[in-house]
Amino acid sequence: MMDMNTSRFQRGGTFLGFILGLVVGLAVALGVAMYVTKVPTPFSNKNQTRTPEQDAVENQKNKDWNPNGVLQPKAPAPAATDGTVTPVPSPAAVPAPSGATDAARKEVKPAVNADPLGELAKSKTAEAAAEPFQYYVQVGAYRSQTEADAQKAKMALMGLDAKVSEREQAGRTVYRVRLGPFDDKAAADRIHARLDGAQIENTIVRMQR
């Protein structure tokens, strides 16, 4: 009888010990879990989920971000006396001074001619049509070539280009020294006056073109 009671008591103690061990183990596990959740661990924020509000703020920052903002200096806005900020006008909105506008209007550049030689030829043709004569300034008529060449050299010393021409006159050869031709009489008159000032005899000869 005593052996049966002793066996039952041992089985009951073993079961009670198992229950107590299980409760203690659960308590220890719960304490460890609470400790781990309260203490921050390294790299724990790596996989944290973002809230929709944080995503909206980040998207707004990325939308307003200008990659060239660091290269563009910001001009400080001048402050008004009443504490308000006066906007800086753009260069296109600033009116130009009236003097500069008038000068720009007065400065009219002449048109560039694409064919200057053609225009010169036309002007010469028009002058020839208006003036049917050519003019020479004769500075001497000589019997010998040597005297004519000497007069030509004298003209060269004065910066004038003379030419010697031959002509039969009364059965004899005459060597004439002339300056020209000139397309208008005014040019011939200027050379005539210059030679008169140098006391050199000369005469103006008009010839048909």
Note down, in words, how this protein is organized.
With 209 residues, the protein is of the alpha+beta class. The protein has a domain of 78 residues: Alpha-Beta Plaits, CATH 3.30.70. Helix content is 48%, strand content 17%. The protein is built from six helices and four strands, in the order ααααβαββαβ. Strands 2-3-1-4 form a four-stranded antiparallel beta sheet. β2 and β3 form a beta hairpin. The termini are far apart. 8% of the residues are buried.
> Whole-Å distance between the termini?
172 Å
- Name of the level-1 CATH class of one domain: Alpha Beta
What proportion strand?
15-25%
| Outline | rod-shaped
Mean pLDDT: 75
**For the largest beta sheet, what order do the strands appear in spatially?**
2-3-1-4
